[in-house]
Amino acid sequence: MNTIDGILLAILEDYGPDPLVNLTEFDLGTATSLSIAGMTIVALGSSDRVYQRLFGSIPVPGNADWEAMPFIFNVFGGESTDDRIKVQGRECVLFLLFKAENRSHAYSIHSDAEQLLIQQTQKFNTRDDMTQEVITSILEQLQQISPPAPQEVSTPVESPIITEKSGLEFFTLSPEGDPQSTSLTEGLKAPLMLLVNHVNQTILRLTLSESVSERKAYLAGSAATKMNVERYQNAYRIRDVDDPLEIHMVLEKIKSSFDLPSDT
Q: Does CATH number 3.40.20.10 belong to domain 165-257?
């Protein structure tokens, strides 16, 4: 069984995102919808673009059983009539598609897949380098990456979200979307905070500001995924906490554990 079932290459044309090579079972309509949705989240409308990175998965529009991990890079865009593309290059995204039920397998090969994509896309200078034959070869190499042998992991014992402060770590995000270790007091000042609870093996993504952009929220989710894969062998659970009441309850429990006043 292949972990990665298909691949889609999307490119930023002068008129917008467009599928260039579609090696999936989806038709042009779905491929176009995924190209637009994915590039909007990971590439467009942001000054802090992050290239050569494989992000966490996003749903395939209209197909709840499928997900895609996007990898962003760019190529020369000097032939463009758009001055922004001439200067910044053409944004490109490789979407690695897999069944949602195989998400844990896909995440387990995340690091190896990312390294392969970095090596292969560094060979691309212009759009002419990204032929269907080349993209097919990349897909075949991805499908040769095997998930690591399963390790016996004890089932986390259900416990309160916050148990003891010695089991907690706090992270904010750098402009590039990388997790940065921080203190609780500094983390509470950020619009987003990742809370790692080592006691019940959970990573919480806390949205602390209503002004958080969709892309920033996505980068936080991707950072949590990468931490889980690289640091914790994909053994932790990841959960988004964006309900105001639940956020308040979590923060009150944290502050109580650290002997901080409620208005800190």
A: yes
